[in-house]
Design brief:
With 277 residues, the chain is α/β, with parallel strands linked by helices. It is built from 12 helices and 8 strands. It has an 8-stranded mixed sheet, sandwiched between helices. A hairpin with a 2-residue loop joins strand 1 and strand 2. The radius of gyration is 17 Å and the shape is globular. It starts with 7 loop residues before the first strand and ends with a helix. 48% of the residues are buried.
Length: 277
């Protein structure tokens, strides 16, 4: 993916993390977190736009995208939350603006609520946050991950492609779909895909869900109105729990709002971040 380079690396306890920084070094730091089964690639258009006013940090979580993948790797929400806290220390940034999607939303929430990481503001985009979560397909694969991992590569590729393409909204461009599927192929990618699903345990959100009402950081909750994975009603519920949270539904967008409505999402994020006192 030469059009989306991640030239920097951080050697953490979960493996090597690939990352990049966009925008002027003096800009306000803004960190973007991707979800599953995606990578920072989904943020590319939004990140480049935000980099006009901010110093934007993008990264692929361990076990995802171009970051390291290996057998036995811990890619759980608990591990990713701890890793994110250490990565912020490595970057030397405090109180960043944070925008987090899907699984990345849970990672950002865990780092804040359980590890004491402070944010200037938090934007949650279709996050995994409220129980119950996980589609019937997701639960089936989680319960039988070792069986699915043995699929012949062509069948595995077809399964991942169909799954990634089921997010709702207008649908993904075939070229984009190829790029989202590619990290999950091959000798390291195929087992990594089932590994991250096998470790997706709802207890990691259950143990912090009761703390959402105590969030004091300015919070924006964005949601694709046509999200086929997590209904928009869950987003409205989350916005009602977090004190003072701003609710921003985005029309004609599915779960991958960054792909379906990048201009609308960028506008919502800029309006929110620029409105901070």
């Amino acid at each position: 993916m030469s059009e989306w380079p991640l030239p920097e690396s951080f050697a953490g306890e979960l493996g090597t993390v690939r990352w990049n920084r966009l925008g002027a070094p003096g800009g306000r730091p803004l960190v973007l977190l991707h979800g599953t089964p995606f990578s920072s690639y989904v943020w590319r258009a939004v990140a480049r736009s935000l980099a006009r006013d901010h110093q934007v940090f993008v990264w692929d979580m361990p076990g995802y995208g171009r970051s390291e993948k290996y057998p036995g790797q811990d890619v759980s929400l608990a591990a990713q939350g701890r890793l994110f806290a250490r990565l912020l220390e490595h970057w030397g940034i405090e109180n960043p603006l944070v925008a987090a999607h899907d699984f990345g939303g849970a990672v950002a929430l865990r780092a804040h609520l359980l590890h004491g990481v402070r944010y200037r503001a938090l934007a949650l985009v279709d996050p995994v946050a409220l129980a119950p979560w996980g589609s019937p397909f997701f639960r089936l694969v989680r319960e039988h991950a070792e069986v699915f991992e043995q699929l012949p590569p062509p069948l595995h590729r077809a399964l991942v492609r169909e799954y990634v393409g089921s997010t709702g909204g207008p649908g993904l461009h075939p070229g984009v779909l190829d790029r989202l599927v590619d990290p999950w192929l091959g000798e390291s990618g195929q087992p990594a895909f089932y590994r991250q699903i096998a470790q997706a345990d709802q207890r990691y959100t259950d143990e912090m869900q009761g703390r959402y009402a105590g969030i004091e950081v300015p919070t924006l909750v964005c949601w694709g109105e046509d999200d086929a994975w997590i209904p928009a009603a869950r987003g409205r519920e989350l916005a009602g729990i977090v004190p003072g949270a701003r609710w921003e539904p985005i029309a004609h967008a599915g779960h991958l709002v960054q792909e379906d409505a990048p201009a609308e999402l960028t506008a919502a994020l800029l309006d929110f971040f620029r409105g901070l006192s």
